Amino acid sequence: MDENRIKYLLDRFAENTITGTEREEMDTWYEHFDLLEDDLHLTYVRNHEVKLGARMWQKITKKIDYKRQLKVPYRWAAVVTILLVSTWLMVAYRQSIYQELYTLATKSVEVPKGKMLVVDLPDGSKVWVRSGSVLSYNYLFLGEERRVDLTGEAFFEVEKNPEKPFVVHAGDWNTRVLGTSFNVKALPDLEAYEVLVKTGKVQVSNSVDVLATMLPGDRLVRRGQELYRDHRALSLYTDWRGGSLSFDNSSMEEIVWYLENYFKVEINLEAESLRTHPFSGDFTGLELHQILRMMQELYPFEVEPLGVKSILIKEK
Question: Has UniProt tagged this entry with the keyword Transmembrane helix (predicted)?
Answer without folding.
Answer: yes
